[in-house]
Amino acid sequence: MAALEIHNVRKEFGSERVLKDVSISIDSGEFLILVGPSGCGKSTLMNAIAGLEPVTSGNIYIDGEDVTWRTPADRDIAMVFQSYALYPSMTVRQNISFGLEMRKVPKAEREAAVERVADLLQITHLLERKPAQLSGGQRQRVAMGRALAREPKVYLFDEPLSNLDAKLRVDMRTEIKKLHQRLGTTIVYVTHDQVEAMTLADCIAVMRDGHILQLGSPDEVYNNPVDMFVAGFMGSPSMNFIRATLEDINGGYQLRIATPGEDELVLPWPEVRIAPDMAERLNQPVILGLRPEHFSEEDERLTSQAEGTLLSASVAVVEPTGADILLRLPLGEQEVTARVGPKCVVAAGERLSLRVDMGRAILFDAETEQRIA
Amino acid sequence: MANVIRRQTPAARLGRGLLYGVLILAALFYILPLAVMLMTSVKPLSEISAGSLLSLPQNPTLAPWIKAWGEACTGMRCEGVGGYFWNSFAIVIPAVLISTTIGALNGYALTKWRFKGSELVFALMLFGCFIPFQVVLLPMAQTLGWLGISSSRAGLILVHVVFGIAFTTLFFRNFYVGIPNELVSAAKLDGAGFFRIFWRILLPVSAPIIVVSVIWQFTQIWNDFLFGVAFSAHNTQPVTVALNNLVNTSTGVREYNVDMAAAMIAALPTLVVYVLAGKYFVRGLTAGSVKG
Question: Considering only CA atoms, which of A368, A36, A361 is closest in space to residue A223?
């Protein structure tokens, strides 16, 4: 049975439609991430699940029960807020046990739950402190502890890491993942950070303008995006979009990239990736999507087994990140980013031969921005 | 600013001296009325009629204070202002507590449980801050009569509560706007209801604004004369009305020392409240603007 099912949910503020027919279903123990740019409706959807905002229409089921019109307290959920929302006048212990107290759990059980959670999150030494005496990371832990103490059916995380500094964010991310693996809880997690989405989720819902554009595993969303928005949103540096024309060649297809003042660039489209929709777009402009890692420097040792098409371009900018090097190079009318190995020796202005892995390239319609192949 | 390095030229020193001179003069000017009142209130009557206003008392005496408290005539009665002093407390304390409580609940509801038209309700309540007292005297008198509590202490308390709510609501509303809504959301998810959230989450952090509201309301209601004179009977009059009657009673010699002592007695509670809680008052008023 689905732990959480959202059925055709709509939400309107006056004439503004914030959620347009959203449907999601996740199983018990799944980690769902709602991701999208600010204003895409992900927080509104989260509040609708929590019961903090009534929906305009549609239904929400938790564990098979229709909770659409239940109060937040009656939904058996817990939430971790972006600002942590720790009760400032209470100690950490009181913060964690407040929800249990409101639910009239006997004192002994409450104490046991606090000890268990404090132990799990390693905050036992902080129990008698007030939130004002805690650091950002400690507050974050307490906020999670408050949610964990009650053992609800569904946990909601609303951008829980966005107020932490970069290093702590990575640590806490790992910790949340560990916690999920250990406890097997059902989690809905809102973020605008695509790295968090990729690393944590079992299932990602990419949202935009109140719609869910794509719902799938991180691998699906990353490697098989449904449109240019999803493709561009997931991944950093983001996917390169190159304007090209689709042409016919001996029954196969090739992409011609206009390169003013230089030799024309033609990339053959791999036969195994031919889609039926391609025929009707012959000799029309299309968008070729290539991720930075779809480029690689030509390496003689690999030439024999590596597949792909060679192209040569002059390097505009070299950005070493340590683990690898990002190159900016003009390709046709646009500049693209390529990710090459850290040993690649190249300076700005030099020409470089690059191998393009067309087997992983993605083709989009230039007008609708939908995926073709 | 303390560690700004400045060369002490003679001109700079002169400027500084002038500055302090002006400030000291201004301070003296402001303290003068209080000083004159205090001095006059401990002078025997003979000294007042003989000496100047600013001369120091030669034979200080507490007799005028004792007379003002227990014997001076306020109109037909000669029982001093003491009884009215307690009258004032009997009116002010419930009125302050009730108006602060209602203001806190209003502010809480208007910020954390928004409903359609809550902004309009707030705007209308704000309007109440700008209504002059005189305008409502007649309708208020009618209402009190209709409720059967005219000339009673309860009636006077009601009037002050109704007038105070506009201000207390404004204070609490502006304070609670600065408290994150997520706190209330978290408490809702934890299973707490309207009053529980107020009592357990909001009220414990409201001390600064409670102090502001209490000082403001205490001062306003204690110092009120118009409602006191209009809606009270002789046995429920507040001290401000008694003071007026005492000063205006025109039998025999005018006893300035007793008048001054009575005025000091009438002003004392607000002074004490401000001295004791004044720093919290300023802190509370600026609380929202300093910390987020």
Answer: A361
